[in-house]
Amino acid sequence: MTEYRGIDEPGLDVSHGVILYLEDLSVSFDGFKALNALSLTVDAGELRCIIGPNGAGKTTLMDVITGKTRPDSGSAWFGQQIDLLTRSEHEIVELGISRKFQKPSVFERHTVAGNLSLAWRPPQGASGKSVWATLRHQQSGEERDAIAALADEIGLLDHLEAPAGKLSHGQKQWLEIGLLLAQQPKLLLVDEPVAGMTQQEIYRTAELLTRLAGDRSVVVVEHDMAFIRSIAQKVTVLHEGSVLAEGAMASLQEDDHVRRVYLGESG
Ligand code: ADP
Ligand code: MG
Q1: Looking at per-residue confidence, does 231 or 4 come out higher?
Q2: 29 close to ligand 1 (CB < 6 Angstrom)
Q3: Of 45, 86, 141, 235, which sees the most CB atoms within 10 A?
Q4: Arithmetic mean of pLDDT, 25-37
């Protein structure tokens, strides 16, 4: 279970301002190119939205970044020095890349605080909770404070003692984001966070993700155009496994090609 890392292990180096470099990535499934020479960079502290029609390769892209799928060719670097393509899924989480899947996986019978407590690990715990911390049943003051801060960040401070099963769909999604934040990721990947949310929840999710970027980088894949517009950051449009266009939403809306392949289809 325990992984010992060599003394030469490079840390995350974002001295060039870039946290993720993807170059010329290709992934084929039975000859079909889910990713086709895709290149993309994400800056440290950036909030990036990725849109694109169904089948554009958005989920496959996240699979490659997190080590679930290995590309046929291309490269993927975390900062200047860490080659993601040589790392296991588990190592990639440990390096500081966390991914939120669409379906919330909170423990419904546990409280909000209980869920956060299960996910929380002490700072500098880059190699995971120590055996002592795992055996320890007593919550430290440090842990209690950290959990309150997390709950506050995700807008659930007033619900700390509520069973997760009693939360609204949107609140469960925020709790799930909180569980990932407890791992202290440097890059947070979020796949379709607002599906099934009310307008009010969508708005608050946009606010939350905007707030979370800065201290870390956040990459959001989303279909909901109202959400993408309200986030108003740099948007990357994927189409047939490559980047079709990139820029502010306003400029993409003027782009004929983007309108044809994507914006036209969902209004
Ligand atoms: P998106 O998330 O943008 O909708 P995906 O990355 O899920 O797109 O899929 C891109 C394409 O690759 C789709 O045509 C999909 O059917 C195909 N694909 C994805 N995963 C697999 C797989 N494991 N086996 C075969 N084809 C796949
Ligand atoms: Mg997808």
Answers
A1: 231
A2: yes
A3: 235
A4: 96
Which element (helix H / strand E) includes 62? Answer: helix 58-65
Q: How far is CA 196 from CA 40, 68, 183, 193, in A?
A: 29, 26, 26, 9
User: Ligand 1: which of 60, 236, 242 to mutate, judged by most atoms within 8 Å of the beta carbon?
Assistant: 60
Q: How far is the CA of 192 from the centre of ligand 1 (A)?
A: 15
Cβ of residue 53 lying under 6 Å from some atom of ligand 1: no
Q: DSSP labels for 147-208?
A: HHHHHHHTT-GGGTTSBGGGS-HHHHHHHHHHHHHTT--SEEEEESTTTT--HHHHHHHHHH
* Contact between 190 and 218 (Cβ < 8 Å): yes
Q: Is the pLDDT of residue 40 over 70?
A: yes
Give the Å distance between the CA of 51 and the centre of ligand 2.
10
Residue 76 burial by CB count (10 A; 0-12/13-18/19+): exposed, middle or buried?
buried
Ligand 1 neighbour 208 (Cβ under 6 A) = no
> Which residues, listed in sequence order, are joined to residue 83 by a DSSP beta bridge?
77
When pLDDT is averaged across residues 17-41 and rounded to a whole number, the result is 97
Average pLDDT over residues 65-92: 97
Report CA(262)–ligand 2 centroid distance (Å): 15
Across 132-159, average pLDDT: 83
| Distant-in-sequence, close-in-space partners of 227: CB < 8 Å, separation ≥ 6 | 194, 202, 205, 206
- The string of pLDDT tens digits covering residues 190-226 is 998 998 899 999 999 999 999 999 999 999 998 888 8
Tokens at 2, concatenated: 């325990």
Q: Check if 60 has its Cβ closer than 6 Å to any atom of ligand 1.
A: yes
